Amino acid sequence: MSDQQKMHRPIRSFVLRQGRLTPGQQRAFDALWPLYGIEYTGEPLDLTTLFGNDNPTLVEIGFGNGESLAQMAAAHPEQNYLGIEVHGPGVGHLLLKIQELGLTNIRIMKHDAIEVLNNCLADASLQGLFLFFPDPWHKKRHHKRRILNPTFLKQLYRVIKPGGFFHAATDWEEYAVQMMEVLGEASEQFQNSVGKGNYTPRPEYRPLTKFEQRGHRLGHGVWDLIFIRRPA
């Protein structure tokens, strides 16, 4: 890679660690990806056609192994869910959960979420967007890789409907503070659902992850932030 290419290479909020798919995950990819997977083309998505209905659509960025997303979709069949994740084993695990639970209201994209937001989602097309436990990039020199920044918020404002929501959660307190600062600076576009500067008690719809349950036992904190998209 040339020096010029390095200069123009985008800063990613993730490190691509593919890992090895289990035999079950590979079978899920082979059988279920054609049904639930969406190949990235850079073109806008028609969500009504994609899901076969005009139900509200919610997006989860970086769904990990997909357990929380599958639980939310199972509990709310009246809503559509689009999951975005770059790591193959997590996608494979979610495909297995879709099959296990008989879900029909999930679609998956295996691609960089920033590019999906920028190129594939129409204005005011989402009821809400979830960002649960993103990489905190805890070293100061890596803070520039954190996904939640003013540029990201501009895209959220564009794709979320007026009155829709953005819900972030983190178990890294310093990142929670920065999230609150960044969202607070966008007060003309987003309003804290529980009042300025306040964190939100975990809503029932967000499942507790195994990692989070272990953290609670060890006395670790988790911070939820839910902000409402203001009208234009």
Automatic annotation (TrEMBL):
Identify the residues that bind substrate: K139, D171, T209, K210, F211, E212
Reaction(s) catalysed by this chain's protein: guanosine(46) in tRNA + S-adenosyl-L-methionine = N(7)-methylguanosine(46) in tRNA + S-adenosyl-L-homocysteine
Instruction: Report if keyword Transferase is assigned.
Output: yes
Signal sequence range: none
Its EC number(s): 2.1.1.33
Which of this chain's residues are annotated to bind S-adenosyl-L-methionine? E60, E85, D112, D135
Q: Which GO terms describe its molecular function?
A: tRNA (guanine(46)-N7)-methyltransferase activity
InterPro entries from the xrefs? SAM-dependent_MTases_sf, tRNA_(Gua-N-7)_MeTrfase_Trmb, tRNA_methyltr_TrmB_bact
- Pathway info: tRNA modification; N(7)-methylguanine-tRNA biosynthesis
Q: Keyword set for this entry?
A: Methyltransferase, S-adenosyl-L-methionine, Transferase, tRNA processing
| Name of a matching Pfam family | Methyltransf_4
Tell me a GO cellular component: tRNA methyltransferase complex
PANTHER family hit by this protein: 3-DEOXY-D-MANNO-OCTULOSONIC-ACID TRANSFERASE/TRNA GUANINE-N 7 - -METHYLTRANSFERASE, PENTACOTRIPEPTIDE-REPEAT REGION OF PRORP DOMAIN-CONTAINING PROTEIN
**Function (record text):** Catalyzes the formation of N(7)-methylguanine at position 46 (m7G46) in tRNA.
What protein family is recorded? Belongs to the class I-like SAM-binding methyltransferase superfamily. TrmB family.
Please give the name of this protein. Answer: tRNA (guanine-N(7)-)-methyltransferase
Source organism (scientific name): Sedimenticola thiotaurini
